[in-house]
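Changelog note: in this version the structure field was regenerated for every chain. One regenerated record is shown below for reference.
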Amino acid sequence: MESPLITEAHLLEQGIQALDTMLGSEWQVTQRPNKSAVFDAALEVRAEGDSTFTQLLVEATRAVPPRFVVERLVPKVQLLREVNNYTNLLVIAPWISSQARDLLRQNGIAYLDLTGNVDIRVARPAIIIHTVGAEKAPRSAPRETSRTTLAGVKAGRLVRLLADVPPPHRATDLHRVSALSLPYVSRLLDTLEDQLLIHRKGRIITEVDWAQLLRARAQETSLLAHGAYQGFLAPNGVPALLQQVPQLSMQYVDGLSVTGSHAAQRFVKVALGGQLMFYVGSWLDIDDVADELGLLPVTEGADVLLLNEPDSFVRRRSEFVDGVQYVAPSQAALDCLAGPGRMPAEGEALLDFMEAYPQEWRASGNELWAGPVQH
């Protein structure tokens, strides 16, 4: 269900009230007549009984995609500083993503969103407010510029393709290889461009910020919410279980792919151990797989998780090592970043490895997809 439209007046009212509450009773926040058509409001902020005040010119907007920060807000604040170095720009929005917040801070632009993400720094009078709110967009928050987001199975396909295969790309090629509709691909590419995750010249994608793209995708999903999963105990331990997998019939060997911590640990060593996670192919039943592997179902203390494979693309460019299939590094990084506990830290360590050694995991420029590699 689409969230109700929040009006500019309501957004301003809530934002000003939140600022007034954070500053407390010893400060005054007064809305002054706005003489500029460029900004949405002008606020005067001063300590009680102090003649010194600062002026905050407000940009109230329903969404703050990173591209909007770079192309609209940065030029505004640069012009503002040329006119008056003591006037500050404050962005008020229902929710602001972490990437947009980073860009705002880098350019000295104050922000306040209604979930509690706030960064306001004024030299005179001295004001420093920094709080952290929601990292993911609340259901009630309006979406940025497009209803097409990085959530869902379809977006996962396009993310993997853009991460694994270096540009240049055309939307038509992405549509053909991903088997997604061309209108959907075009809408999602518009969203990614607004978030500065891709750059285009005309119709050609020339750059992909694949690491940030994987992070952004992980923020929109959860590894253990992809589908049904069950926890089990391996009676003889995880190492013995991995040795057992190649001895199964081919339908089971092909249908089990390791993801999460154990897939990341092929490349980085953050911490040994962790739950062994398998994606289970759609043609297999989790209970049958558990029986074949001799796993014991448990409600707590599981050392093995069997996850229903959300889409066959999670196995794209997977690799067989000692007869066991492992998801590609980009999929392992995604799943770790979207996983519980220490897994996001493992995902970040894997991203560091991937940035340092792109030749170890990225496809060649003319390769779109490869099947599992036998080792």
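Spot check on this record: The CA atoms of residues 77 and 89 lie 6 Å apart. The chain has 13 helices and 17 strands.
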